[in-house]
Amino acid sequence: MQPDLRADTDVIEQILGLTRPDEEVYLVGGPVRDRLLNRAAHDLDFAVRGNAVRLARRVANRLGGAFYVLDAGHDTARVLLNRADGGRLILDFAGLRSEDLSGDLLGRDFTVNAMALSLRDPDSLIDPLGGAADLRDGVLRACTETSLSGDPVRVLRAVRMAMTFQLHIEPQTLRWMKEAADQLGRVSAERKRDELFRLLGGHKVAAAVRMLDQIGALQQVLPELDALKGVTQPPPHEYDVWEHTLQVLNALEKLFGLLVGEYHHEAADLIYGTAVMRIGRYRQQLAAHFDQPLHPERTVRSLLFFSALYHDIAKPDTRSVEEGGRIRFLRHEREGGPVTADRARQLALSRAEVERAQTTVSQHMRVHHLVQTGKPPTRRALYRFWRTAGPAGVEVCLLSLADTLAKSAVPTYDQTWQDEVEVVRSLLEAWYERKEELVAPPRLISGTELQQRLGMSPGPNIGRLLDAIREKQAEGMISTADEAWRYAEKWARSQSANHGGQQNES
Q: Please, what is the average pLDDT of the chain?
């Protein structure tokens, strides 16, 4: 394999031009691997014989990038550059941690990440551990026996890389992974979170989660999921809650590819094709939704898959069996929201991410309930769904479809599926095409005006009245300020009469 350095060549040439004679700079790790695979690199890692922080500062000054010292003690710094396409290019610079480059590469995680290119001689691949051969043969191999025990978070990385690059984990490496999994408890929440969310944002998520479970790593990162195993469900469910959750991930990944990614008709059968036909018109809007991260280092897609893992987390605690044998999980979605939020906080997710995940889980039955009415959603139902779910409603829609598909090994093209798709179509139409009419009608009167004209006191009643007016707008029953005032006056009189009656009764 010969590396292709044409990508980001200008940046690399600029760095080489800023390198002093007594410095040696190497492109190392993932970027070298990606070039051997002809994959685009989203960041570039450099090992520096010399002062890496000083070189990074020179690069930032020359290229107009942001500069950060990541670890002064280990001579590590980062430069962030804005791409022409609006994206970012991350340049990481680190001083050699061994006496020579070979020793530095030996301390890395896997052989496919332990290759380097000298910027002065980019045609010669430096590959002391045979990473190129392993990459060619589809093998993931740890660099040394201590590669995993020394840094247990690499267990998560190994699973992600195996799925992403379709690599077979070498048997000895797999044994070391199992031994190191028990040590994940000593890894910081932030590092576990970062690797987990990269995995959730990648390929074959269900297979990756299953492997994490099999090697004992999942219990160290998402311990609540273990309780899902063996929890049986009533028909039409064919799986226990654990297996159903994994099938939801599979269905969600396929739906996401068809509805948000680039559509490939050969991947859509009759069932998935129905979703594409009815919902595919919102592909651009959905892509924009998932391209707007709640946190710059994590994607909304990853958060959706995290929420999917936890959507039935409260079923073990809410399971009941009625007379006659009927199994029920009453309010499991509401009980699951706080559990999801607690795990999200322990993973050090942002407040916005915690709230989004909790909302997605606590509202994931809403679409199913709308389907069960047997009728198209009313204007009031559409308004109330989006009022409660907000932007998380987009995730709820996709999760609901995946939840329905994952009830059985062979999903059926039945009326329930068709109704589910139609309800989701109606919800997305309201959100993307009729938002001002059905989701967020414009305010016709303000809280201040209510206080001035009706003498209402500041407090929750004003918010309730304003929301009631907006709901009537969404229903099409109020369209002008005069109609809003008539409704407000009637509402205020009703509240006053009720309040007075309560006083008389007391």
A: 92
71-129 per-position pLDDT tens digit: 999 899 999 998 776 678 899 999 998 888 999 999 999 999 999 999 998 889 999 99
Residue with tokens 């680039």: 262
Q: Collapsing DSSP states into helix, strand and coil, what is residue 49?
A: strand
- Give Cα separations from 99 to 45, 48, 49, 102, 153 (angstroms): 19, 12, 9, 8, 25
User: What is residue 410's DSSP assignment?
Assistant: S
Nearest of 384, 382, 389 to residue 356 by alpha carbon: 389
Residues in the chain: 506
Tokens 């991350």 — which residue?
90
Listed in sequence order, the residues at least 6 apart from 472 whose beta carbon sits closer than 8 Å to its beta carbon are: 478, 487
Region label for 288, one of left (φ > 0), alpha (ψ between -120 and 50) or beta (otherwise): alpha
Which H/E stretch holds residue 379?
A: helix 379-389
CA distance 223 to 217: 9
pLDDT 10s digits, 324-333: 899 999 999 9
Average pLDDT over residues 12-35: 92
Task: Give the right CATH number for 138-221 from 1.10.110.30, 3.30.70.270, 3.20.20.80, 1.20.58.460.
Answer: 1.10.110.30
In the chain, where are the structural domains located?
1-129, 138-221, 226-439, 447-505
Q: Which two tokens stand for residue 331?
A: 């309010």
Exposed / middle / buried, residue 291 (Cβ in 10 Å: 0-12, 13-18, 19+): exposed
As given in the structure block, the two tokens for residue 470 are 């907006």
Report whether CATH 3.30.70.100 matches the domain 1-129.
no
CA of 100: how far to CAs of 74, 106, 119, 121, 203, in Å?
15, 10, 16, 17, 36
Residues 6+ apart with CB under 8 A from 208: 159, 160, 162, 163, 199, 202
**3-class DSSP state of 89:** strand
Of the candidates 83, 81, 85, 107, which has an alpha carbon nearest to the alpha carbon of residue 94?
107
